[in-house]
Design brief:
Blueprint (H helix, E strand, L loop, with lengths): L14 H12 L6 E5 L5 H8 L6 E4 L25 E4 L3 E3 L6 H5 E3 L1 H5 L6 E3 L1 H4 L4 E4 L7 H13 L1 E6 L2 E6 L3 E6 L8 H6 L2 E5 L5 H16 L1 H7 L1 H17 L7 H13 L6 H16 L7 H11 L16 H10 L5 H12 L5 H12 L14 E3 L17 E2 L5 E7 L8 H13 L15 E7 L4 E7 L9 H19 L2 E8 L2 E9 L2 H9 L9 H17 L4 E7 L13 H14 L4 E5 L9 H9 L2 E4 H7 L2 E3 L8
């Protein structure tokens, strides 16, 4: 036997993950599962193993659209045949590669039949193959935007409509979407995130006995897959029977109005904007009851459903991880049952006493300030203010992650007619020639003319790199300036978080500068490193600019449009060379950065009445705009830097 999967029932732990997958098998309209977690936590293993325990579906032999017998899509010649053979088959499990083209996903003209002189025929794509089955996307957060748009359209309608190359085809495309992702590679577009009915966070077990059992089972499976699968057959059969029973019970499960009110109450209290959450939680609660063999939904079912439906939908602050406050959830669940009258009277009397006096809160803050620690928290930020900075980017950018259309490298997304193509789209060219030839009186005389030529259109990766260079010298500790600096940087990171830009952080203090965080899409890691950044020592500003130049040149070589954001008072006092002038070295490096065409933004952290104005001079050498920290803190505004990287 080939392509054996690790048995679903043999997976150690990960109970919430297994439950979510089983629920999607019970009710295929839930919208699928998003599985988030580190590498090596059985994300892909569990997804692939699910297919082995799913009850088979009926399918017409040879049907490429996976039509439901008796309801052909209209474009399937096989299903239209009254003598077609119906047979049970495994639920389709289709993997969507990250590099797939739109033609492969949506479907296209059947070139082979067109060359044979036959009529125009549609060749189904991956969406047709996944109908009534599972569409699996590994590292779904890295999926190209044009494919995300395709998935959003199909997921919303349940049908795939193709209008191209003289074809007009619409066919059903209803599938369970399962995606896996690693947060270190960046987040997922909010529109696609909401399309996943359920979400699960997975992690490797922390108990040594469980980890040892994971290793033991995996080694045994790899040594003899057939024998291992056979040994777990009884458990697999039991799960398969449980799923079949649950699917039959689902339509009979009752969820009363009181629990529906509870569902809506939970969604409101957790500040969930999408009404899809209420609908999916209703369905998930019923599926949980059916999976347990019950016909009545209980509050525990609603609670379990909330843990799968709400974490990725509730409104979150930037850098706040998905998840639910379990204590808050317990409190809301308890509120669903009215307390005794004595407790209500007690609560009423406590409310009359009023909230905790503000003076007590202030005294707690004052006691924290007296500790004298040199690692400062970030100041709170307010409304985002967008400031456009005139700068010439090394690579023109526009839009979220600023995909470069018609890039020399990248994924092929479509083809357009072009009689002088620089990158020939062979498939589109041949299809055009086949269509033209088929329309003539001599369809067998196939010939490619210049008018048939097509150009490949590619979309290149162009995540912007925002490099934060943060002054962590001793002067930043004065008047708690580092607190305001961290607040400003975190506000800037907010925009990068929303747009999935890459970020890097350089800090400088003492005698040198260090790359605190290499370029990454994980803004959470940048936020964590920044919060833990201490202050103290001298100001090696030339070292920081030299390291920034090296980092940005390397990023430019990799195709990442850069932006430099410098936060400092500019009071350099550590030279690169013995006997050198730190300030002159700083200006020279700034002019070098400007000469490279690197856009920059300077945030002046100098405060007080007597100021040297070094940061403003540095900004002039960089060709950058200079903003004072007081401008930000006085108005309590967050600063974004999108104007620096949208040069056209």
């Amino acid at each position: 036997m080939t392509n054996m999967h690790f048995p679903f029932s043999a997976i150690v732990g990960q109970q919430q993950l297994k439950t979510a997958l089983l629920l999607c098998a019970v009710d295929t309209t839930l919208g699928g599962v998003l599985i988030r977690g580190d590498k090596g936590t059985a994300k892909s293993t569990a997804a692939r193993a699910l297919t082995d325990i799913l009850p088979p579906i009926e399918r017409i032999l040879g049907c490429a659209f996976n039509c439901l017998p008796g309801t052909p899509c209209g474009h399937c010649e096989i299903c239209s045949n009254a003598n077609a053979t119906v047979q049970p088959c495994a639920v389709p499990f289709i993997t969507l590669p990250l590099g797939a083209t739109e033609d492969r996903v949506l479907g296209t003209l059947d070139l082979e039949r067109a060359l044979q002189g036959a009529k125009r025929t549609f060749q189904p794509g991956l969406l047709a193959a996944a109908h009534r089955g599972i569409l699996y996307i590994d590292e779904v957060n890295l999926l190209a935007d044009h494919l995300v748009d395709v998935l959003l359209d199909v997921a919303a309608m349940g049908v795939n409509s193709v209008q191209r190359e003289g074809l007009s085809v619409t066919h059903p495309a209803r599938f369970t979407l399962i995606g896996t992702m690693n947060l270190e590679e960046g987040d997922l577009r909010p529109q696609l995130l909401d399309r996943f009915g359920l979400m699960v966070e997975v992690a490797a077990p922390r108990e040594k006995t469980l980890r040892a059992e994971v290793v033991r089972r995996r080694i045994a499976f790899e040594a003899d897959p057939a024998a291992y699968v056979s040994a777990w057959a009884p458990q697999q059969n039991a799960l398969r029977a449980q799923l079949a029973t649950a699917q039959q019970l689902l339509s009979k499960v009752i969820l009363d109005d009181a629990l529906l009110d509870l569902i809506s109450h939970l969604c409101c209290e957790f500040d969930v904007a999408s009404l899809r959450a209420d609908i999916v939680m209703h369905k998930a609660s019923r599926a949980l009851a059916a999976l347990d063999g019950r016909l009545q939904v209980t509050p525990d079912d609603v609670r379990s459903a909330a843990q799968l439906v709400l974490p990725h939908r509730r409104r979150r602050k930037p850098f706040e991880q998905p998840g639910l406050d379990q204590d808050r959830l317990d409190e809301l669940m308890q509120q669903a049952s009215p307390p005794p009258e004595s407790e209500q009277e007690s609560e009423a009397s406590s409310e009359e006493d009023g909230p905790q006096p503000k003076s007590q809160q202030e005294s707690e803050q004052e006691s924290e300030q007296e500790t004298g620690q040199q690692v400062f928290a970030a100041a709170a930020s307010g409304t985002v203010r967008r400031i456009a900075v005139d700068a010439v980017a090394m690579h023109p950018i526009a839009g979220r992650r600023s995909a470069v259309a018609d890039a020399p490298r990248g994924r092929v997304v479509r083809a357009v007619p072009d009689q002088n193509p620089t990158s020939l789209a062979v498939g589109a060219t041949l299809r055009s020639a086949a269509l033209r030839t088929a329309a003539t009186d001599q369809p067998l005389e196939f010939k490619v003319n210049r008018s048939d030529l097509h150009q490949q259109i590619r979309i290149g990766k162009s995540a912007n790199l925002i490099l934060f260079v943060v002054d962590a010298s001793g002067s930043m500790a004065a008047q708690r300036r580092m607190e305001a600096v961290k607040g400003a940087v975190l506000a800037l990171l907010t925009d990068a978080y929303q747009r999935r830009d890459e970020v890097a952080v350089i800090s400088f203090r003492g005698d040198a500068a260090a790359l605190l965080l290499a370029p990454t899409r994980s803004v959470d890691r940048a936020e964590q490193g920044l919060r833990e950044l201490p202050t103290g020592g001298r100001t090696p500003l030339p070292h920081a600019l030299q390291l920034a130049l090296e980092t940005l040149e390397q990023a430019a070589a990799n195709g990442a449009p850069p932006l430099l954001v410098l936060l400092s008072d500019g009071k350099a006092n550590v030279a690169l060379r013995d006997g050198g002038d730190p300030w002159h070295e700083t200006l020279a490096l700034a002019e070098m950065l400007a000469g490279r065409g690197i856009p920059a933004l300077v945030l002046d952290t100098e405060t007080g009445y007597l100021r040297l104005g070094r940061a403003a001079q540095l900004a002039q050498a960089l060709g950058a705009e200079c903003l004072t920290l007081e401008e930000l803190s006085a108005e309590n505004l967050a600063l974004t830097i999108r104007g620096c990287i949208n040069a056209t």
